[in-house]
């Protein structure tokens, strides 16, 4: 008659694991000394993932019979699964004392040593295994893992390849061979091995490996599909979530990337790289607050991570928190004094504060530390312009000639060279540099599928005009805040908004807050605040007077956090706020609205010359022209429909008669005249725009009709612009210009 234990073994061989376990439990209930039943039940529990329970059961088997090598080997596996690598090593050594020269015991010993962080001893164990059994594919695979861990990737590759040759159906060997080939930049060779591993052992790891190879081969949609398969098979695995987020980020699909990287940080909250990647995609999507929070998390986990500290500093700098930014750079340089990006950012901080000598010194230090640092050369050249020494230009030109320089760095240097050439009166050379620089930037955006989409912008402008018309203004009349504190300066970039802000901010009752995104963010937050899934435009009909006042109060609270309490007026000079007067007038009907305009040819030239990494439409003549047409159309709409005065300031008039224009804009803000407004260039306030250098100088006329010097070389740019190009010729239907 068959014994109960034999029945359990028979059930196991038939694939009826639960029934086999139940029989073992009955045996042990009747006889706690049945070591084979305890051992088998422990192995079954280990296969179910209950490592701690498995270890307890096999320990009991060992206590009953301490002379069975297989008990110790399976106990070692239970300990490994429980994170008890040292105990696993001890078990393997006991098994080898009981049964010397056992390839299986030596192989398991090697694995336990690897777990214990002892790769050299593991390598010795795996080599002994292969001395006894040269055709043992798992040992070749494990030796490859140990060699890779000890920094010998070429030797590791040999053993992964041998494992795959000996056992083509051994999925771990094929998977590791694929990984090794990919790490060796040989994705074409890796692909069939990772495909085989995913077929043989379909799980989150094998599909993640396959997706990694497809990504390297630029088979993006196939890679996305395999990452999704990996996530379906292992929803609690952080790696496929993180890698999918990184792929989407690199493809310009940064909004999609955020959710996957957020999940990765939730699944692996101690992984610094995931938090750093998440911060980067938040930053790319104008999520400054979320990006800063993520970088702070990085630094909580890794305080000496200088790149993250420097990135946080830049985010703080962009947020107007210069003292905190400076502290970040100080701390970064305290950890790594030769970290060039921190020196560069320190230089930018000095430049924004008008400390040009200190800025130059910081840029030169960044170049000394990293001679191939294109952005540092670019900042130095743009700072000095006509005073840029020949030796520095030679160093810049040498870097430009380097075949190792990427398109982004080349574009930075060409923009800077154009500014130097412009200051030296060499318009043809500047124009040629600008053509190449803008083409490089446009090419980068096209490759990332992140280029400017004029049709989308035109549709957006159309929705603005349809949503904010006479009916809107009539419905919201009197609903907003009565505060006069906000002052909004807007217009196209390079139309004089920084100059007007600097004039106003020189008044003791005015705080210049720079370019704030409060208007856009407030409007775009409508769905979230109202708890709706509609677009912001669709939400407008659901916004009542009380809701508008809450938005206005929130805006004022944010200004309060930015500006000193003594400031009666706070200036927001975000140029793109010309898109939002309909929203802002409803919030603040008593605010001051100033529209800066200028000859479109000068604006177009200045945009074409400026390294606006965040304004993608400035790199294409067609996009510049289209943007200008949409701007003209929208400003005509506001002038015809807005129930408040939009004060117009023409740049050319400001340059020709500074005092008259300054007096009028001060009066428009409801303030008494102060002569300090004529000394705007002496202000020590921080300026964070492309006009940072110009507004540190007295008013000058050289930028008026500057386009004429470029007419022979940039005729295509000027010819594409909407007529009339001269601001004096634009038909005005609104209030008179100030």
Automatic annotation (TrEMBL):
Q: Where are the TPR repeats?
A: 103-136, 137-170, 204-237, 340-373
Q: Which top-level group of life is the source organism from?
A: Bacteria
* Keywords, alphabetical: TPR repeat
Keyword Transferase applies = no
An MF annotation (GO) of this entry: protein O-acetylglucosaminyltransferase activity
Specify the protein name.
TPR repeat
Which SMART domains does the record match to this protein? TPR
Keyword hit for Isomerase:
no
**Which Gene Ontology terms describe the biological processes this protein takes part in?**
protein O-linked glycosylation
Species lineage, top-down?
Bacteria, Pseudomonadati, Planctomycetota, Planctomycetia, Gemmatales
């Amino acid at each position: 008659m068959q014994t109960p234990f034999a029945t359990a073994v028979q059930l196991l061989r038939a694939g009826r694991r639960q029934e086999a376990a139940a029989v073992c439990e009955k045996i042990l209930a009747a006889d706690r000394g049945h070591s084979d039943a305890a051992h088998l039940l422990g192995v079954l529990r280990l296969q179910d993932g209950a490592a701690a329970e498995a270890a307890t059961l096999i320990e009991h088997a060992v206590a009953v019979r301490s002379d069975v090598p297989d008990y110790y080997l399976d106990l070692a596996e239970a300990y490994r699964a429980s994170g008890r690598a040292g105990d696993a090593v001890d078990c393997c050594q006991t098994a080898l004392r009981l049964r010397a020269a056992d390839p299986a015991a030596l192989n398991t010993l090697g694995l336990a040593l690897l777990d214990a962080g002892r790769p050299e001893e593991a390598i010795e164990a795996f080599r002994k295994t292969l001395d006894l059994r040269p055709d043992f594919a798992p040992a070749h695979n494990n030796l490859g893992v140990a060699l890779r861990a000890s920094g010998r990737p070429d030797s590791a590759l040999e053993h992964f390849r041998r494992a795959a040759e000996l056992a083509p159906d051994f999925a771990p060997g094929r998977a590791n061979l694929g990984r090794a080939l990919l790490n060796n930049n040989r994705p074409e060779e890796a692909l069939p091995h990772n495909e085989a591993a995913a077929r043989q052992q379909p799980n989150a790891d094998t599909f993640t490996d396959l997706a990694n190879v497809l990504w390297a081969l630029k088979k993006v949609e196939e890679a996305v599909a395999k990452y999704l398969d990996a996530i379906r098979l292992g929803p609690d695995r952080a790696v496929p979530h993180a890698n999918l987020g990184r792929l989407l980020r690199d493809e310009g699909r940064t909004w999609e990337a955020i959710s996957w990287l957020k999940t990765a940080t939730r699944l692996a909250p101690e992984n610094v790289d995931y938090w750093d990647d998440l911060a980067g995609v938040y930053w790319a999507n104008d999520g400054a607050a979320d990006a800063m929070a993520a970088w702070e998390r990085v630094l909580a986990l890794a305080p000496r991570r200088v790149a993250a500290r420097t990135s946080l500093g830049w985010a703080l700098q962009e947020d107007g928190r210069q003292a905190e930014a400076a502290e970040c750079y100080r701390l970064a340089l305290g950890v790594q004094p030769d970290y060039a990006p921190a020196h560069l950012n320190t230089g930018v901080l000095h430049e924004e504060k008008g400390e040009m000598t200190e800025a130059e010194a910081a840029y030169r230090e960044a170049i000394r530390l990293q001679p191939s640092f294109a952005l540092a050369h670019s900042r130095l050249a743009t700072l000095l312009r006509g005073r840029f020494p020949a030796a520095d230009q030679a160093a810049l030109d040498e870097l430009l000639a380097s075949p190792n320089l990427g398109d982004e760095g080349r574009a930075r240097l060409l923009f800077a060279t154009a500014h130097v050439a412009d200051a030296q009166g060499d318009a043809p050379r500047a124009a040629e540099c600008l053509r190449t620089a803008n083409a490089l930037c446009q090419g980068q955006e096209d490759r990332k599928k992140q280029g400017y989409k004029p049709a989308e912008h035109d549709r957006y402008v159309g929705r603005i005009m349809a949503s904010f018309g006479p009916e809107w203004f009539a419905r919201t009349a009197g609903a907003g805040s009565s505060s006069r504190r906000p002052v909004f300066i807007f217009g196209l970039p390079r139309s004089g908004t920084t100059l007007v802000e600097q004039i106003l901010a020189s008044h003791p009752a005015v705080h210049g807050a720079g370019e704030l995104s409060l208007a856009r963010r407030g409007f775009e937050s409508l769905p979230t605040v109202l708890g709706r899934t509609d677009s912001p435009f669709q939400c407008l009909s659901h916004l009542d007077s009380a809701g508008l006042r809450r938005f206005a109060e929130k805006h004022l609270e944010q200004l309060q956090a930015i500006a000193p309490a003594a400031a009666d007026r706070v200036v927001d000079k975000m140029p793109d706020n010309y898109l939002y007067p309909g929203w802002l007038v409803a919030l603040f009907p008593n605010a001051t609205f100033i529209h800066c305009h200028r000859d479109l040819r000068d604006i177009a030239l200045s945009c074409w010359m400026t390294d606006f990494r965040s304004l993608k439409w400035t790199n294409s003549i067609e996009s510049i022209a289209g943007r200008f047409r949409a701007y003209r159309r929208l400003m005509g709409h506001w002038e015809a429909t807005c129930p408040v005065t939009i004060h117009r300031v023409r740049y050319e008039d400001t340059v020709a008669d500074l005092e008259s224009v300054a007096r009028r804009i001060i009066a428009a803000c409801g303030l008494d005249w102060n002569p300090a407004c004529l000394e705007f260039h002496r202000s020590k306030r921080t300026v964070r725009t492309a006009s940072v250098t110009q507004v540190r100088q007295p008013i000058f006329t050289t930028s008026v009709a500057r386009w004429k010097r470029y007419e022979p070389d940039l005729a295509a740019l000027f010819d594409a612009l909407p007529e009339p190009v001269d601001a004096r010729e634009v038909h005005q239907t609104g209030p008179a210009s100030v």
